[in-house]
Specification:
This protein is an alpha+beta fold. Helices cover about 35% and strands about 20% of the residues. The chain has a 4-stranded antiparallel β-sheet with strand order 8-7-10-11. A hairpin with a 2-residue loop joins β5 and β6. About 25% of the residues are buried. The structure holds heme C (5 copies). The site of one heme C has 28 residues, from α5, α8, α10, α11 and α14.
Length: about 325
């Protein structure tokens, strides 16, 4: 009789211990889901610093390394501008050396990172989640180093880009708002269409086969090819009138940034090549005349048969860039019939 009571009590306390333990395990699990896997998360930062990402993803690394994302902190133009801002840690640095945005929230204002600031917008900023996994488009191979998590946002990443290129409170750096109102957005294109072109290459050293990915170069204002694609120039003659038309082909306001100026020089020459008229138009945020996507600007001249019209478009990176370094975006010359 006594023995069964003892046995019962033993079983009861065992049950209590077990249920206590499972509640504990449940709470711990819950906490780790909220906090993420801190060990794995930190390991990815060490891996980035120790060159692990570079050794398994050499092709993508080489592309990123030369991009403005890799320079976002060390860029001299940035540092020079940020130096003049009293509370730069709050108003500038958060986007130029951010914490991973999957952790601080897609679309939310990024937060300043306290480590590895010199690596600017690094791989981790766009791909690392709180569990230490890499989120991306569909991965085909496995790796023990990090988990791969498929997230559809990477296939059409405008929302991802908008975290830094489309904060309403930072209109100086907003390419997204004008894009969203454009034909490109209606045609289901994204920022990646023009800035991360499709490429066949190995995604990691774990595979020998090239697969489709997207270039991590983000060519923009420093790319002559990108600038040449930004506009079209046309000269048409009707009767005694010449119409010069210049159209924005970029997916957003042109120029895309607020530091840039496009200089349009128009020259009207008579048949003996003496200059008849000369006109210079500056297009910039400062002049409040940036072009919306697909927007056209036209200039009309009165001409006679045999007159020549010449249009030259040049791109000035900042107000300090000397004229000898302005990039020729396009030029056209036509003789009136
Ligand atoms: C919301 C994120 C964000 C914040 C905040 C931010 N930037 Fe930027 N910055 C960007 C992005 C995105 C670009 C690239 C696109 C562009 O130029 O619009 C950029 C580019 C720049 C450039 C151009 C660098 C070059 O070489 O082409 C300068 C200069 C700059 N930022 C200075 C600043 C300063 C100064 C502040 C603080 C007053 C600041 N930024 C705050 C996101 C941000
Ligand atoms: C031991 C090799 C190895 C290392 C080290 C490594 N990766 Fe990977 N990673 C891979 C493999 C394999 C894949 C899958 C690629 C494929 O599908 O072919 C991958 C995929 C990815 C993806 C795509 C994930 C997806 O779901 O689409 C990202 C992003 C990524 N890695 C980033 C990184 C970053 C950042 C680092 C450094 C912190 C890193 N990787 C280090 C092997 C590695
Ligand atoms: C500014 C954000 C950004 C940064 C920085 C970035 N990536 Fe990506 N990455 C993307 C996007 C967007 C895609 C989706 C492209 C696609 O649809 O194929 C992608 C795709 C990938 C893939 C899948 C293969 C491919 O080409 O699509 C791998 C692997 C990868 N990234 C690794 C890296 C590594 C390694 C770094 C650093 C050297 C890095 N990424 C830096 C945004 C970024
Ligand atoms: C975490 C913030 C962040 C995210 C996310 C981000 N960018 Fe950027 N991006 C920047 C900053 C900051 C710069 C400016 C670097 C500099 O010039 O100092 C920049 C520069 C660029 C440039 C080059 C600008 C130039 O002057 O030529 C392009 C193009 C670009 N980003 C496109 C993209 C696209 C496309 C995406 C989405 C796939 C994206 N970015 C996502 C912060 C970000
Ligand atoms: C139809 C092609 C196209 C699409 C779509 C597009 N861009 Fe651009 N982008 C360009 C061209 C061309 C330039 C170079 C001319 C210029 O400076 O605006 C450029 C320039 C830029 C620059 C450099 C601006 C500067 O002054 O330094 C940034 C940053 C940028 N784009 C970001 C984005 C983002 C973010 C998206 C998505 C909302 C996007 N782009 C969509 C074609 C495109």
């Amino acid at each position: 009789m006594r023995k069964t009571v003892i046995l019962r009590r033993c079983l009861l306390s065992l049950c209590l211990i077990l249920s206590g333990l499972s509640i504990f395990v449940f709470i711990m699990n819950f906490a780790s889901n909220v906090e993420g896997d801190e060990g794995k998360y930190k390991e990815m930062f060490r891996g980035f610093e120790d060159g692990k990402c570079k050794s398994c993803h050499p092709a993508i690394w080489r592309e990123w390394e030369k991009s403005m994302h890799a320079q976002a902190w060390i860029d001299e133009i940035y540092q020079e501008a940020a130096k003049q801002v009293a509370n730069r840690e709050k108003s500038c640095d958060p986007c130029h050396a951010p914490e991973p945005i999957l952790v601080t929230g897609i679309g939310k204002m990024p937060k300043l990172r306290s480590v590895q600031q010199e690596s600017g917008v690094s791989c981790l900023v766009c791909h690392l989640d709180k569990d230490g996994a890499m989120q991306g488009p569909l991965a085909s191979a496995e790796t023990n180093f990090h988990a791969n998590v498929t997230n559809p946002i990477y296939q059409s990443p405008t929302k991802l880009c908008a975290t830094c290129h489309g904060q309403i409170s930072v209109p100086e750096h907003d390419q997204v708002s004008s894009f969203l109102k454009s034909r490109f957005a209606a045609e289901k294109k994204s920022c990646a269409t023009c800035h991360m072109p499709v490429v066949n290459r190995i995604q990691s050293t774990a595979s020998y086969e090239s697969t489709k990915g997207r270039k991590h170069t983000w060519r923009g204002s420093r790319s002559v090819a990108q600038l040449k694609d930004a506009t079209t120039l046309k000269i048409e003659f009707t009767g005694k009138k010449a119409t010069v038309t210049f159209q924005n082909k970029a997916g957003h306001l042109l120029p895309g940034g607020t530091l840039r100026t496009i200089v349009l020089d128009l020259t009207h020459l008579t048949p003996d090549r003496t200059q008849h008229e000369k006109k210079q138009v500056l297009i910039s945020e400062k002049a409040k005349n940036r072009l919306k996507p697909d927007e056209k600007r036209t200039f009309i001249f009165n001409v006679n048969s045999g007159d020549t019209l010449k249009a030259v478009l040049r791109y000035q990176l900042t107000s300090k860039t000397p004229e000898s370094e302005w990039v020729r975006m396009g030029e056209l010359s036509k003789v009136a019939p």
